[in-house]
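Dear Dr. H.,

I hope your travels went smoothly. While you were away I took the liberty of generating a structure for the chain from your last submission, since the lab meeting agenda had it listed for discussion. I wanted you to have the full record in hand beforehand rather than looking at slides cold. The sequence, exactly as received, is reproduced here:
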Amino acid sequence: MSYFLIAVVISFPLSVTLHHGLISVGVLYFIYKLFKEKKYPSLTLLGNPLHLFNFSTLASAFLYMPEKLREAFSSSFLRYGYLLPFVETSRWEKLFYNINRLLVLEGLILIPVFLYNFFVENRMKLLWGNMMKVAEIYALFTLSAVFLALYKRSIFYTFLAVVFFLIMAVPVRRAEILGVLMTLFLLGILYLRDNPGYVKRVLAALAVALLTGCGGFYYMAEKEKDPRFRVVIEILKGEKELSEETINRLTTTRWNNLKAGLVIIGRDFKNTDIVPLLIGHGIYSGHKLVPPPPNGLPYYESVVFVQEMIQRGILGLIAMILIFIRSLKLFISVDLRKRENLMLSSMASYLVFYNFSSLFTPYVNATFPVALFMFGLAEACIRKSPTGRIQKEFHN
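The corresponding predicted structure, in token form, is as follows:
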């Protein structure tokens, strides 16, 4: 079973079809075990929120977006891959270490693929997906390299983490850059909390990250003339005033989307439309609503809470907030004084990154199942230890 769990994670950067296929097999196996043993894993952190999230997704699609019902069902089904680790006992200690090493190896192998696509084909792509997936996949590689660098106290893995981060930043996906930086900043604080003797090293690493981020920002604004960054420089220099127009340019139409989305929600409250308020108007329902999203997309891409309120209603929004809070709580609770727990924390970190990176983008995409699955591995490891805590050493 350990090999299957590893395959689920490492298949994600290689093929989304293979990854989702393995997740589906895992969910079917979970259902089989459920009927065979008549025992549902209790007290899981994200079980009930996922039920609520999937219910609002399916119910709103059935009522308002029947053409998206198949997609709503398939995405809801894949999210239950989170539960698979709770029905099997594996050698968690070795498992997490091997997953991180294999992810870093994949990161190295995919560098030539990225360079070929970028310089020869003039596109930002790996083996599948688009520039967003380049950022999300190399964010995963970056986090694995960082945790291995801390675990092994290795300059080599530190160097790889920097390389992976730079590749992740090439598509200039602000959401993923924000997600990685916030996750690493939080990790730095937690590591200092539990290892105060490393304060100088951690602060130096955070300072380098901050300077790199500021340098990259300035380069994109001044050299590349990226309008999303350039407008900030113009405001700081006094060349432009802070107005709705400049905010909309800075946020790539998210400001206008936010205002349009608030109109939809306000009208639902004013008209006391209970059903849409509870379960939303359905996924990708923007083209059916008035006013439609100003950017032409089928959803109101702005602040994630507004987007989810429109698509999945109050129930879906509550579920999403619970997923965010509970995953963050587990990540914060891991005791990093024990070096072996770094490998556990690495499994939980990708969902934390995913939540942070989704603050201003649609919450659900093809990456959500692997983030949930990895978090399930971490949580199952804790719950299956004798006292609910990690006590054993990770072995090389």
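Two observations you may find useful: The chain has 16 helices and no strands. The mean pLDDT is 86.

With kind regards,
E. W.
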